[in-house]
User: Which sequence fits this backbone?
């Protein structure tokens, strides 16, 4: 996945790859290897020997060393762009993006289930309102990238369907 990240006004180009031993993060060309795990209040990231807690609240990242204003844009998900020749020509990966920042209050989607256009995949709470995120096409759920309680940002990929 590639994206543009602005932290406290400083823009960065970021690439993140999931590997068998953890993650590889490239920030403006510099490479870091680490691990990520979910915790109740967000995630913990280890780059080097120390785990650091990161929580997202709207456009603010709360970390062990303070709070930072963030903005993420220009998100490219490699899985949605790479086509597998073994895959049927009629099937395509379809990333489902969060239409707004918010908190995941319910996840209906499960990997492997068949969904119809309009079926609720998950429910986001934003500005004290619950918003159902529907499947835009008939398909099979290939990935669910959030769990209840996660904070999401606008355009974050929350699930991936294989649309037919």
Assistant:
């Amino acid at each position: 996945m590639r994206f543009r990240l602005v932290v406290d006004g400083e823009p960065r180009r970021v690439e993140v790859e999931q590997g068998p031993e953890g993650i590889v993060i490239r920030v403006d060309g510099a490479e870091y290897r680490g691990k990520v795990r979910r915790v109740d209040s967000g995630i913990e990231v280890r780059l080097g020997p120390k785990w650091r807690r990161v929580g997202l609240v709207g456009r603010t990242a709360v970390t062990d060393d303070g709070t930072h204003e963030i903005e993420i844009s220009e998100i490219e998900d490699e899985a949605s762009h790479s086509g597998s020749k073994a895959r049927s020509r009629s099937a395509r990966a379809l990333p489902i993006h969060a239409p707004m920042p918010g908190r995941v209050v319910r996840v209906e989607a499960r990997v492997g289930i068949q969904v119809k256009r309009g079926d609720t995949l998950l429910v986001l709470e934003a500005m004290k309102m619950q918003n159902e995120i529907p499947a835009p096409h008939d398909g099979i759920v290939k990935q669910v990238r959030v769990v209840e309680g996660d904070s999401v940002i606008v355009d974050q990929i929350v699930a991936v369907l294989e649309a037919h």
Remarks:
- The domain at 87-163 is CATH 2.40.50.100 (OB fold (Dihydrolipoamide Acetyltransferase, E2P)).
- Residues 80-89 have pLDDT under 50 and may be disordered.
- The two ends are 24 Å apart (CA to CA).
- The chain has two domains: 2-76, 87-163.
